[in-house]
Design goal:
Largest sheet: 8 strands, mixed
Strand content: 25-35%
Number of helices: 7
Shape: globular
Order of helices and strands: HHEEHEEEEEEEEEHEHEEEHEEH
Strand order of the largest sheet: 4-3-5-6-7-8-9-10
Oligomer: single chain
Bound molecules: 1,6-di-O-phosphono-beta-D-fructofuranose
């Protein structure tokens, strides 16, 4: 008889037993991201039928036009933690201030990008939810403005041909696939390791004019033919950070979102707490690296809830090479 499928709940409970003194609260919280992922997947799949596509008619704290599905996904995630007293604070890329639950006594804070890849929303492109969990300290914003190394769980739900959930609680990276016929996430890869190097890179080259010369030189270097070093690399940009990082988690490679240097001042796009920290946590757990070009992403302590930073994330070999270029040393 073949081994029974390992559901997300079973895997989390088995992992919990490896933590002496675990109360089970973190396990319950983690399982809820699975529930939220399934509800958001259902809303995405039916959006064209339910009139949930298009703009919501307002802008978010980033000044970006909010899509109806950004709002739907954000509400689903807020509802998901609104019982059981597990969570004290929820911070979202779509909300100006953190949401405080009930008594504010929950042991955890959750942070999320409810729908990453906004430009893909109305064109049926790859999308994702990015999430992380931190411990409650005094239940205020200060609990969140801490280094990425203080995350206790991080992961993402990827909405592509299949719906995947990938997470790490600091003990490896595990991949689950949604089995639609039973509505359960089933373990498909345990302890995923990112290849040491890849053959692909993902960056919006349409923005190259705003990059620092060192960044342009790095991307040009990847495009120069040199069989000995596996170049030229292939460009693999899907306009979904989660989709691209997931590709490189499995195949190796590097995703870049450098700062645009406007008027002499670097202007990064990606958010530290909702995008860079959680994905850096997962990628480093899988043996990859995440850098700002000036140091590890996980060492960054944001000075505000919606702080942004430049990102280079992926296989060790490519991110090491990027850092050499970024520091002016070239290949
Ligand atoms: P959102 O969270 O608002 O979607 O922003 C992040 C993101 O969409 C990434 O998923 C993607 O890689 C990048 O921004 C696309 O930006 P651009 O359109 O400038 O290439």
């Amino acid at each position: 008889m073949s081994a029974p499928p390992v559901t997300l709940d079973r895997f989390i409970l088995e992992e919990q037993h490896t933590f002496p003194g675990a109360t089970g609260e973190l396990s319950l919280l983690l399982m809820r991201f699975g529930v939220a992922g399934k509800r958001i997947a259902s809303a995405l799949a039916r959006a064209g039928l339910t009139g949930q596509q298009g703009a919501a008619g307002r802008r978010n704290v980033q000044g970006e036009e909010q899509k109806k599905l950004d709002v739907v996904a954000n509400e689903i995630l807020l509802e998901t933690f609104d019982y059981g007293g597990l969570v004290t604070l929820a911070a979202s890329e779509e909300m100006e201030e953190p949401f405080v639950y009930g008594s504010g006594q929950g042991r955890y804070a959750v942070l999320f990008d409810p729908l990453d890849g906004s430009s893909n929303i109305d064109v049926n492109g790859t999308l994702g939810v990015i999430f992380s969990v931190r411990s409650r300290r005094d239940g205020t914003l200060q609990d969140l403005l801490r280094s990425g190394r203080e995350q206790i769980v991080a992961g993402y739900v990827l909405f592509g041909p299949a719906v995947l959930l990938v997470y790490s609680s600091g003990h490896g990276v595990h991949l689950f696939t949604l089995e639609p016929s039973i509505g359960e996430f089933l373990l498909t890869r345990r302890d995923v390791r990112m290849p040491e190097r890849g053959r692909g890179y993902a960056v919006n080259e349409g923005r190259a004019h705003g990059w620092a010369p060192e960044v342009r030189a790095f991307v040009e270097h990847l495009k120069q033919p040199d069989p000995a070093t596996g170049r030229p690399y292939s460009t693999r940009y899907s306009a979904s950070l989660v989709g691209d990082v997931h590709r490189f988690l499995l195949e190796g490679g590097i995703y870049l979102y450098p700062s645009d240097v406007q008027g002499g001042r670097p202007k990064p796009k990606l958010r530290v707490l909702y995008e860079c920290h959680p994905l850096a946590f997962v990628v480093e757990q899988a043996g990859g690296r995440a850098s700002s070009g000036g140091g590890p992403v996980l060492d960054v302590v944001p000075d505000s809830l919606h702080a942004r930073m430049p990102l280079a994330i992926g296989s060790r070999a490519e991110v090491d090479l990027f850092d050499r270029f970024a520091s002016g040393h070239g290949a």
